[in-house]
Design a protein that fits this description.
The protein is mainly beta. It contains one helix and ten strands, in the order E-E-E-E-H-E-E-E-E-E-E. The strands form three sheets. Strands 4-8-7-6-5 form a five-stranded antiparallel β-sheet, with no helix packed on it. Strands 1-2-3 form a three-stranded antiparallel β-sheet, with no helix packed on it. The chain has a two-stranded antiparallel ribbon with strand order 9-10. The N terminus is likely disordered.
Length: about 110
């Protein structure tokens, strides 16, 4: 059983063993973001076969980290990366949707 709590827009997860694991990707408002029609950088298919699209922030541009969206789940996150060179098929940094949130494949041990 998983317990999820939100603190200052960042997420933490407590596992069955009661160990605390830090989740790095900040959740963004998907609907508000899509309404601003952001510029798409590209897309990849992650380790779980999910299509991940990368966007520039619609008002802050390249002064804000790359935004990842997984349309299938209507979820958007700030990746904390300022370019997309680390996102490629098989990369440990690819955003993955699991257990109700998005984080890097590395954090899900994929």
């Amino acid at each position: 059983m998983w317990c999820i709590a939100c603190l200052f827009s960042y997420h933490y997860i407590i596992s069955n063993s009661h160990t605390l694991k830090y989740i790095i990707m900040q959740i963004l408002n998907y609907n508000r973001l899509k309404a601003l029609n952001p510029t798409k950088y590209g897309e990849i298919t992650n380790q779980r076969g999910q299509l991940v699209e990368f966007y520039e922030h619609p008002t802050k541009g390249d002064e804000y980290p790359v935004i990842a969206i997984i349309e299938e789940f209507k979820e958007a996150v700030c990746t904390d990366f300022f370019d997309t060179s680390d996102f490629f098929e098989g990369s440990d940094y690819n955003p993955v949707y699991m257990h109700g949130f998005i984080d890097s494949a590395f954090y899900f041990d994929l």
